[in-house]
Amino acid sequence: MALRFPRFSQGLAQDPTTRRIWFGIATAHDFESHDDITEERLYQNIFASHFGQLAIIFLWTSGNLFHVAWQGNFETWVQDPLHVRPIAHAIWDPHFGQPAVEAFTRGGALGPVNIAYSGVYQWWYTIGLRTNEDLYTGALFLLFLSALSLIGGWLHLQPKWKPRVSWFKNAESRLNHHLSGLFGVSSLAWTGHLVHVAIPASRGEYVRWNNFLNVLPHPQGLGPLFTGQWNLYAQNPDSSSHLFGTSQGSGTAILTLLGGFHPQTQSLWLTDMAHHHLAIAILFLIAGHMYRTNFGIGHSIKDLLEAHIPPGGRLGRGHKGLYDTINNSLHFQLGLALASLGVITSLVAQHMYSLPAYAFIAQDFTTQAALYTHHQYIAGFIMTGAFAHGAIFFIRDYNPEENEDNVLARMLDHKEAIISHLSWASLFLGFHTLGLYVHNDVMLAFGTPEKQILIEPIFAQWIQSAHGKTSYGFDVLLSSTSGPAFNAGRSIWLPGWLNAINENSNSLFLTIGPGDFLVHHAIALGLHTTTLILVKGALDARGSKLMPDKKDFGYSFPCDGPGRGGTCDISAWDAFYLAVFWMLNTIGWVTFYWHWKHITLWQGNVSQFNESSTYLMGWLRDYLWLNSSQLINGYNPFGMNSLSVWAWMFLFGHLVWATGFMFLISWRGYWQELIETLAWAHERTPLANLIRWKDKPVALSIVQARLVGLAHFSVGYIFTYAAFLIASTSGKFG
């Protein structure tokens, strides 16, 4: 018999039904469950797949550069970044009639094109790229890196080049190399690029490989570095009248601490960013020498953790046993990595708009909205993934004997207290927030808006004031001119920072009121409920009062039959599945809030948000309905415009989203019955019955149907909002 898919599971390969195909796909990447897996092969497979991942990333970024160079308008955009619309790539579509061709021909192009809302133009411009040739060079270089990564992946699967398990488990060496190599050296290299290429470019000087060694980035070269007069590098910064990309009003400083934004580009000062990356580099180069390897200097992580026993004895054996638990569990390590990366991605979303790093990106409103939304959704998926792998750790890798009475065991021991507290917080937030919204809704409906309950967020306003925002009149810390903090920073970064935070045209510390107070608590409800579901799923993954032997059933199981009643929907996978819906809802509220607040800010009618955001009908009418009107009119009986593609995507997104419910609400028996009937009809229909199948068609399992439903729900939800966001923003601001 020929080898059937899946080759990694003999049991599955012999399954006579279509289950073989779906389960094969579902477990293809679960290397641990494959027939002939060993610990060594598991680590080697994952290591090799990382090279493939890198190859895909390099190929993708190379494609971005290549298409902009080939079909974009980068060189024209560079001449006037505020008024030329950046082109992502051309559109070739045989269905386009003359009106469509005209609608999509923009940005100075000769034919239909897509506008770029990714911010790549601003990014490339800021880091010193200026011509299409620069973009082609970058694309070729990344293509080369991509090929190199593929060769690396192949090489590390060859017997001679396969790393051993001991190499993968050498945590100290890996940390040292990642800290000093990945973070330290790359930050240093980036500082070098900013100082040698980007900063000169911002001052109208074109530095490339041919003149790289002749152009001094600073008039005094390396002199100040060796004589200890580092402050010279900060002297004579660009003036506030500096025109970015020209020598007009430019200075000679390379490492500064000016604070605030470049007045023309509304982005952080390049010289501040170079300084920041240099500081990061030094910090991480030092950190990369922290752990003890074969040189006998530094700390042993195991010794550190073993010593972490809180005094007083009330917290048990502290971190004892954690080193081996973490070092021997890939799921634990992945959970930690995903948790960190998720938080960082969300921070990127927050900081990209409030402290823009790229020239002129703050004035490209659609790009700002798209990047914020994109990074928040990515963060949501990554964070939920952290808990999924945390749960798998508890099921597959956790050893109670090795973790007796340490922090991990104690988390499990008092999980009821953790879960019930989270539950209480979620209930409190939910009922109070909804109660306020509904009360305000009723007051508006009855024509007595003055009877709304409007709460000023005074604590948040106080925090904003402490950072220097003066409009609330709190006169505290940095908003007070007499405090020590104010005096200490007055000669360096404070003037720039205070100017920025009190300037009403940017997104730094936006003025907040009762509408913000309410939506913040709605978001807090979403965050706490999502966390509750995820934490409960992970802490109950090994067993619960209802089902003490849950760990024996694995990560995902539908039910344990009718025998002990009520064991459906309680696998760790089910918790993850439920949490993703809450995560999507929460980020929906986050992005609605961000987008509406910014639209009113950019249009100069902030009072619309302030007045309408305190009751539910305000959100439905003045945000969702009002901003979808252009979208619904993308094409109509009188013709079409450049928003028509978003109008179509808006409809298509709803379709995909609604398809999810077909899988989520109807269950297995219905589908199995339908399949049997269709198969019966097929076998009795002339011509059609010439087509036969070897696998007996069966319905998806309960867990699989949920996954398919969840995937459609998520993709449709995000597609719909993406179309709404881009069309409503670009329709207003061009």
Q: How would you describe what is shown here?
A:
The protein has 734 residues and is mostly helical. It has five domains: 37 residues, no CATH class; 128 residues, no CATH class; 122 residues, no CATH class; 161 residues, no CATH class; 102 residues, no CATH class. The strands form two sheets. It has a two-stranded antiparallel sheet. Strands 3-4 form a two-stranded antiparallel ribbon. Strand 3 and strand 4 form a beta hairpin. Helix 3 packs antiparallel against helix 7 and helix 17 packs antiparallel against helix 21. The longest helix is centred in the N-terminal third of the chain and has 33 residues. The termini are far apart. 33% of the residues are buried.
Q: Any descriptors?
A:
5 domains, globular, two-stranded antiparallel sheet, membrane, mainly alpha, two-stranded antiparallel ribbon, transport, electron transfer activity, 734 residues
Give the structure's gist in a few sentences.
The chain is mostly helical. It has 27 helices and 4 strands.
Multimer state: single chain
Terminal-residue CA separation: 63 Å
Proportion of strand residues? under 5%
Tell me how many strands there are.
Answer: 4
**Helix proportion:** 55-70%
